[in-house]
Write a structure and sequence with these properties.
Layout (H helix, E strand, L loop, with lengths): L6 H33 L4 H5 L9 H5 L3 E6 L3 H14 L8 E6 L1 H9 L6 E3 L4 H8 L9 E6 L1 E6 L13 H8 L9 E5 L5 H12 L1 H4 L3 E5 L2 H9 L5 E5 L11 E6 L7 E7 L7 H13 L3 H9 L7
Parallel strand pairs: 1-2, 1-3, 6-7, 6-8
Antiparallel strand pairs: 3-10, 4-10, 5-8, 5-9
Helix pairs in contact: 4-12
Length: 311
């Protein structure tokens, strides 16, 4: 005897179709929102995670390369310094000095994990001191090379201009209130946990917390990432370093200098990292570049990029 078709199971399956379609659409939307939010996420975990960088290879060893780990704000300035250094030492090739940039805190963590950097250009003085204390950096190599400054950056189409440097929190708030935006304005800063420029920007925001509550504060993993979020229109304004105002990508932006009295000072220092083995050429390169950083030529380049130095 033939069995009749199981109609109840069939119709039950049909009823589930809309639910399946809805669930799939919900998953797609959630995935899209998650991907978008990752671009401007302000969660510290995603920006403080560090990965060990293996920079060594046979070819690198043969070329006697040294690695310059630099805070993101100083990357373009360091590139200029390397070029000037090469001009003074024609026997040295530019590819012998490789630059690796990132947030100061992230680079510090990598050094503590054994990343084979040679000179560390931090955007603060605390981490260089800690490296010396923890015997990861050589004694007598601490050098304060620059003082950073903050600027407020915004699209030039806004037609807002600063007649003078902003010296009071009330002046900054008054200037920000002139931006007529339909939605809650987004202000991007570097991550305060790993980036000293973000820490200083955050100290400025804390001084006028109530007024800044009108803004959505977004944190980039470092100062260059904060700049990128502004350039990609993921933020309306940004608090950046003065050096970034010289970048060619910022031609369509205006800036307001923020006086140093309004935020935590940004003193930047470098140290030479300890390493068990270095070739004579690597030792020579490190010594020569360390001395070059103290020369008038180097200080002129640093000043031209909007930094201040010891008088």
């Amino acid at each position: 005897m033939k069995t009749a078709p199981h109609h109840s199971s069939f119709f039950l399956w049909l009823k589930k179709i809309p639910l399946v379609v809805f669930s799939s659409a919900l998953i797609l939307c959630t995935t899209h929102l998650y991907a978008t939010s990752k671009i401007i996420s302000d969660t510290e975990q995603s920006f403080t995670r560090t990965e060990f960088i293996d920079l060594t290879s046979k070819s690198d060893t043969q070329k006697d390369i040294i690695y310059l780990a630099v805070a993101a704000n100083f990357k373009s300035t360091l590139q200029q310094l390397v070029s000037a250094f090469i001009l003074e030492h024609p026997n040295i090739k530019e590819e012998q000095l490789k630059i690796i940039s990132g947030a100061t805190g992230a680079l510090y963590a990598q050094i503590m994990q054994g990343a084979p950097f040679d000179i560390f250009f931090a955007a603060d003085i605390n981490r260089p001191h800690l490296l010396i204390e923890n015997k990861h950096a050589e004694n007598g190599t601490y050098y304060s090379y620059a003082y950073g400054q903050l600027i407020l950056a915004f699209p030039a189409k806004e037609k807002k201009h600063c007649s003078h440097a902003i010296s009071q929190p009330s002046e900054l708030i008054e200037f920000l209130n002139h931006f007529q935006l339909q939605t809650k304005p987004t202000l991007v800063i570097a991550n305060p946990t790993t980036a000293p420029y973000g820490l200083s920007a955050n100290s400025l925001i804390d001084k006028a917390a109530e007024e800044f509550s009108k803004y959505r504060i977004v944190k980039g993993k470092n100062i260059l990432h904060a700049q990128q979020l502004l350039l990609n229109s993921h933020a309306d304004l940004a608090i950046l370093s003065t050096a970034q105002a010289n970048h060619t990508t910022m031609m369509d932006y205006d800036f307001c200098l923020i006086e140093q009295s309004l935020y935590t000072p940004i003193e930047q220092a470098l140290v030479i990292i300890k390493k068990e083995k270095r070739t004579k050429n690597q030792q020579y390169l490190i010594k020569q570049f360390f001395h070059f950083m103290k020369k008038e030529k180097a200080q002129t380049i640093i000043l031209s990029n909007g930094y201040l130095i010891h008088e």
